[in-house]
Design a protein that fits this description.
With 384 residues, the protein is α/β, with parallel strands linked by helices. It has 9 helices and 23 strands.
């Protein structure tokens, strides 16, 4: 196992200071290791996640070689030639477990932002102290965007949030964490070959959730109550002005509708499973309050906005993968973790790899068993 940094490197060095897991601690489980701390319904800090993964590496005796940076993987002699910072390895099979969030995904329009405006990504951001005084434009309303917008607003800065497509969820539902419902009701177990639109499912934004001790819901209503100004999707930057889509109302309505449908799924499962009385009565939530007049443009050159935070998602980095298995959008072409067109090449840790829970800590075990099963069959019968 080759690791460019240390064990749990991304958790250790590529997250902002206040970040906690979105999943409750009782869902933090790996083969032979579960969370056993005092707050099973809490959310682990980044330091706790690092310790958890380090403990797992020790328990399973993983042969991790740290400080080894892979620079190239090429097909060679029926297998692969892996060139790294300390030499070369020849292997019959390779598992790509580098994840889907190696680099921030920033739209090209960032180049048109005036030079006097500081631009940050979640990889750059650590805490509000590094952000200049003055207004902040946060672009993106998924988990990262809403968390950073809230944190910056609490410092007293004026914050505008540009919201495109997003997934709204309450932090708790009928007395339990909403992700407990995702797991218990079987939503997370839906297989990749059962998903109607797999490409879209793999590109869905992360839900608007935050892991706070008080298990607070952080949606657009909560942000508006804090004084965050809501705007539509950032469509362009022209002549120093940010131009926003006028479709905020439609985006919000669609998000609310999808949340209602999902909560209905939970209710149906609870009734069928016989736990409806134990869980408490069904809940419904106030619709997202749409601003009467949402801003359509913002002068970035006026000094009103001093910082733009690009919370516009992440993308994988396959610059080292010298095998023709990456599509035009930079995504690995695979079928349930079996890379298409390159026998012996496999992947783990990608969205909806085998199931909807693939990218969660508690979701990797089933994927890993399936993928390593495919790998073992290939080693037994490489001609297939």
């Amino acid at each position: 196992m080759l690791e460019r940094g240390e064990v749990a490197n991304s958790w250790r060095s590529e997250r902002w200071d206040s970040l906690r897991l979105l999943t409750p601690s009782f869902q933090s489980r790996l083969p032979g290791l579960r969370y056993e701390g005092p707050e099973p319904d809490g959310y682990m800090t980044m330091g706790e996640v690092t310790e958890f993964i380090e403990a797992f590496a020790k328990i399973c005796g993983a042969p991790v070689r740290t400080g080894v940076n892979v620079t190239s993987v090429q097909q060679a002699d029926g297998g692969f030639r892996i060139t790294h910072s300390q030499g070369v390895i020849l292997a019959r099979t390779v598992v790509i477990a580098s994840g889907a969030c190696n680099l921030p995904s920033v739209p090209p329009l960032h180049e048109a932002v005036p030079a006097g405006v500081t631009q940050l990504t979640p990889f750059d951001y650590r805490n509000p102290d590094q952000v200049p005084d003055g207004g902040v434009l946060v672009v993106g309303a998924s988990a990262t965007g809403v968390q950073l917008a809230a944190e910056l607003r609490l410092t007293g800065r004026p914050v505008t949030l540009s919201a495109g497509e997003h997934v709204r969820l309450p932090r708790t539902y009928r007395g339990r964490d909403v992700l407990w419902w995702m797991d218990a009701s079987g939503v997370w177990d839906q297989r990749h070959d059962e998903v109607e639109d797999l490409i879209r499912a793999r590109r869905l934004p992360s839900p608007q959730l935050v892991g706070t001790p008080g298990r607070a819901t952080l949606d657009l209503n909560a942000l508006a109550s804090m004084g965050v100004e809501l705007a539509g999707r950032l469509a362009a930057v022209r002549d120093g002005r940010a131009l926003f889509s006028g479709g905020l109302r439609n985006v919000i309505s669609l998000s609310d509708l999808k949340m209602e449908r999902l909560l209905g799924t939970f209710d149906e499962w609870a009734t069928a499973d016989g736990c409806a009385a134990e869980a408490g009565p069904p809940e419904r939530f106030e619709p997202t309050r749409v601003p009467e007049r949402s801003r359509l443009q913002l002068d970035l050159a006026s000094g009103e906005i001093r910082t733009v935070v690009w919370a516009t998602g992440f993308r994988p980095d396959y610059s080292w993968l010298d095998v023709p298995v990456v599509d035009a959008k930079g995504q690995l072409e695979h079928e349930g973790g079996v890379v298409t067109g390159s026998p012996g090449l496999y992947a783990l840790g990608l969205p909806v790899l085998r199931r909807r829970k693939s990218t969660f800590i508690c979701g990797i075990e089933d994927d890993a068993r399936a993928v390593t099963g495919e790998l073992a069959r290939y080693l037994d019968h490489p001609q297939r």
